[in-house]
Amino acid sequence: MSSPLRKINVPEKRIGNYLLPPGIDIFERGWLSANNIFLFGNDDVSLVDTGYCAHQQMTVDLVFNALKQHGLKTLNKVVNTHLHSDHCGGNAALSEQFDCEIWIPKAEAVAVQNWDESLLSFQQLGQECPRFTHHALLVPGEEIILGPYRWQILAAPGHDNHSIMLYQEQHQILISADALWEEGFGVIFPELWGEGGFEEVAQTLELIEGLPVALVIPGHGKPFTDVKKSIETAKSRLDYLSSDADRNARHGAKVLLKYKLLEWRNQELAKVNQWISGTPAMEGIRQQMNLGVEEFQAWLVQALVKSKAATIEKDHLINLD
To answer: Which of 3, 126, 220, 291 is deepest in the core (most CB within 10 A)?
Structure first.
């Protein structure tokens, strides 16, 4: 399990030179669990994204603490920017605890209603997510009340072609999910299964560039205010990945194994290799790279070691933070 989460808002709620408006708390969760945004007003209390299932009790405790701190009774709704397991793994636990509504991107409605493993990403990526039920849909172009503010729902394809972002025009805040981080963006997964994602990432970055944004709250990493610099970094990263399809595939494989290792912390190499060979996305990457099964497993493990993301001791792969 990764290190304890940190509540990153200092008492005066300043992020750089940006004064965070009232009714917003931000919790940085690291990489196994996506950041949570707790929004509270007189008529609504909402949480954007809920972390990974291995941290679901931590997420419930975090919400309880926030409710108590602000003198609130309950959580009204959960909003998921997209349905990767690190963003929605706490949905079921929060729904059970608070009987709150769950809002998901419109394009995921059928997949969630039928809990269709062929459409949902969890099995494909070798991850887990307890089943949950949705109550309402996030439709790009429409608006939603979160806490005391009205937010625009924006389509954000690329990392996930069903993903959305949330934009608060009055205070120029963008909840960007994994479409934009301070130094890049999330893995372009659609490219790994032939759906296309490079052009979609470019379109999403162009959309962000056209908005007046003073603060970005990303899916992972700390909130930031130098949006121009981050977009330039992201564009450079996109150029690098899109210039070689295998480069994006190799990056995706390393990220997926590192993510799983964050959950395991320490795992036998035999079980690591079993997970690699049993994960559909990994098999697709192996075939794209034209490597044999054992050759691909050996390359991937050594790639993590070489990048100092892991080490090997006594036939175990051990996470390095």
So the answer is: 220
